[in-house]
Amino acid sequence: MRAIIFALSAACALALTACSGPAEDAAHEQANAVDAAGERQADALERQAASTSNEAEEKALNRQADAVENAADGQSDAMHRQVDKDF
């Protein structure tokens, strides 16, 4: 599911690139980078969760991964909205 969302985000970024200027493109790329960094961090936490034999720790790590991913998504979305508003 995350891969699909990431692919759609990339496609949207490409579509935006076709009709925007360099400053807007850079700002959108920065927002995409925030999202990608959150995704990488969440993936690392999920791998850590999958490798533990402690069920409570696994659940805690998965909750933390979800929180990291949601925070990055929220920040990225806010950045994209601000860019769209500014340009």
UniProtKB/TrEMBL annotation:
UniProt feature, compositional bias: Basic and acidic residues? 37-46, 78-87
Q: Where is this region: Disordered?
A: 30-87
Parts forming coiled coils: none
| Signal peptide positions on this chain | 1-23
Q: Which UniProt keywords apply?
A: Signal
Protein name according to UniProt: Lipoprotein
Source organism (scientific name): Phenylobacterium deserti
Taxonomic lineage: Bacteria, Pseudomonadati, Pseudomonadota, Alphaproteobacteria, Caulobacterales
